[in-house]
Each structure stands twice: as structure tokens, then as C-alpha cells.
Design goal:
Blueprint (H helix, E strand, L loop, with lengths): L5 E6 L3 H13 L1 H6 L2 E7 L3 E3 L4 H6 L8 E3 H4 L4 E11 L4 E6 L2 H4 L4 E4 L2 E4 L3 E3 L7 H4 E2 L4 H20 L3 H7 L1 E5 L3 H17 L12 E5 L11 H13 L2 E4 L4 E3 L4 E4 L4 E3 L2 E4 L3 E3 L16 E2 L12 E3 L4 E2 L16 H19 L13 E5 L5 E5 L2 E4 L1 H14 L3 H16 L15 H6 L17
Helix pairs in contact: 1-11, 7-8
Amino acid sequence: MVKERARILVVGGGYVGMYTALRLQRRLKRELDRGDVEITVVTPDPYMTYQPFLPEAAAGAISPRHVVVPLRRVLDRCRVLIGEATAVDHAKRTATITTLATEEEGTGGQRLPYDELVLAPGSVSRTLPIPGLADHGIGFKTVEEAIGLRNHVIEQMDIASSTRDPAIRDAALTFVFVGGGFAGVEALGELEDMARYAARYYHNVQPDDMKWILVEASDRILPEVGEEMGRYTVTELRRRNIDVRLRTRLESCADRVAVLSDGARFPTRTVVWTAGVKPHPVLAATDLPRNGRGRLTCTPELSVEGTTHAWAAGDAAAVPDVTASEPGRECAPNAQHAVRQAKVLADNIVHSLRGEPLETYEHAYAGSVASLGLHKGVAHVYGRKLKGYPAWFMHRAYHLSRVPTFNRKARVLAEWALAGLFKREIVSLGSLEHPRAEFELAAGGKPSQDPPHNPKGSS
């Protein structure tokens, strides 16, 4: 039984935020019914994005709406606020929140009091001051960006098919991906596979006409799957005529020309930036301790070090890895840890409210799986190495088991089954990004244009 009334504030609706709130509402069902506990989730989106499915959504293998989980449906016992926490004063137990109505109200952010705080805002893309990147770069972290990228790639094939200018055609059919981690390699693999298939429906665009370039600053890609599988991935990508450039950086993409550190220059209309992430800016607007990389310093029990009633996990938290042989090692900020940390975090909040001993988060890294396109993949799981179809099948099976709710599992499985029976969709719906443009033009106005590939105005 909870010792006193508790207001629990969860900042973020991603892996950690959603799974923590979901477990809390299950563990504290009676307390919620009595009004002893209330749970508020503050999130910029009304859904949780299952990011491992973004590459398949971009390739058209999964419908975008099946990559996301509606929070209001899942967290039916929580209060879900669509907005963002802009500051946290933990000493006073208050968070400053802005919502969709804040600007129209004109009163500024509202202060939301709490008793227990869960900080799980996730991360944002880590960019560098590269000339032209802000103007021409495309991210790959949200479902909007994934679908926008799919539309963009097909649109470039349409441009190449219709132009008479060889320079425009060459730039349209050149696709540069920066970053050799999961996001970059999987997005490149899936989209190249899709574009190769789509080329059969163009009378004057062949797969060999397209240039696909992967730029990675370090000496290998996919470090999570091990050195051997990383080398295999490079070989597999190069076999598909993908130009993999290791120990290479993007120095500029101004004027739609990608300039690399090895001296290569590629006129291109597509630069996809997947070169890492950094902690969410709200962490810097708190009075909580952070490490040198800007993540919250946490204990093995997932409380914020040196404080009480503050908890964190996932990308925002530096959590000690108690299973590591060398001291000082932290858990990797990935989904595998985030989902498991959310369970322990929620349980520890319940233990804390009931005056019970806390649990220690302990999980040995199981390995990783990556898709490289339809029927292609690599995996290194529990010491076993797989490649090709078995790895691809394991990738799908693992993520199907992990995507939240039976509803989403069934819909994704149905889409995969139908994809095996029918041909791929190769339609671009780029007009969805500016749905009022045609009406504004008809009404005598000038069609408004949002910043390219940036539907939320985020960096």
C-alpha cells in the first residue's frame, strides 16, 4: 500500500516513458482507483514510435500507422499531455510544460507539480556545423522523416526519368547516407532494395544508374554486431554496388554537392544524416547531475544519483552496467536496455512508494540483429553469428515479439504476409507533406511551404 498520495510525472513517451507508465498503471491499479496515485505523461507526440521498424516503413513493407502505438489507448489510466517539458526544478518538485495551446493562450509555460519524476525524453539527432547540412540534410529518427525519405527517393527517380539534363539526372540518382550505425545501414539497405525494385517500372532508369554511398568516420560499420559481421556487411553492400567509404567524413553539402574528406565530390539531392544522437536538450534545463556527455548520472537502481524521487533510464541516463567485467562501464543507450530498464524503474517507484527495498538493474547484452533489405541481414546473438536469410528472419521475429500490443503485432504480421503475396507499393505521396497547397493555390493564395524534411521544426 502506498504510504501517501503520489503524483508521478513521466517526461517522454518513447520506449522508457511508455513502458514505465504502462507498468505503473498495472502495478498501481488499486491506488489509481482510490485516487492515491495519479500518473501524468508529457510527450510531444500522442504515440510511441517503434524505431526498429522505421527502415521497413520507409521501404513500404509496413504501413506508417503500424509503426506507432497510440498512447491514449495503451495508457488509459494515465493523463497524457501532448507537449514538452522545457525545464525541471527538482528542488521545488515542479516542471515547466508547454502544450499545443500554450502559444494561443499567451500565458507562457505552465508549472506542473509532482512528487516522483521519471525523465525519459530520449535523444535528438547529433549534428555538426557542416555547410549545407541544415538546408539539405534529411534525418531518420521519426516516422515522419522515414515516410518523407521514401517519398523523396521515389520523387528523385521521377525527376531522373523525366529530365533531359544529365547533370540533374545524375544528382537525382545519387543518394548519400552519413553514419554507419543501425539507422544508417538499415535505412540504406531497405531503400536501395526498394529503389532497385521500383526501377523495373521506369523505362529509362536502371538500378545501375543509381549511386548509393555510405559515409562512416570510423574504420567499421555496425560495431554492435561484431567485427566479423561488420566486415561481412561491408562486403555484402559493396556486392550490391553500394559505395562504402570508411574513415571518411562529410565536409560539406552546400549547393547540393556532397564533399567528402577523401576529396570525393558528389552532386546529389539526397543527404541522409544518421551520424549519432545526443541527449535531449531538456536535461540541460534541470538541476539534476549529468555526466560529461550530458546524460543524467544514475545509480544501478535507476534513480538519479545524489537525489531522491527522481528516476531516469534509456538515452537520457548513464546507467552503470553491473554485468561488465571492467568498472565504470555504462549500459548502451539502445532499445534492448531501455525496455528492460523501464520495467525495473517502474517496479522501483512502486517499491519506493511502499517503503520496500529497491531492485538493481542487471542485464547482460544479448547481441544485435540488423536488416539489410528484403531477405538480407546480419546477426550476432548470444555468441552465434548469422547472415543472409536466417539473420533477416531473426530480425523480423525478434522485433515482432518486441513491438508493443497484440493489435500492432497482428497488423504487422498481416502486412508481412500480404507483402509475400502481392507486389511492392512504389507510390510517392509527397503531397501529404503540404496537403493544403492545392487548395491555397485554387483560392488565389501562395502555397505555404514548411521547412523541408522537418515537419516538427526540430533540429
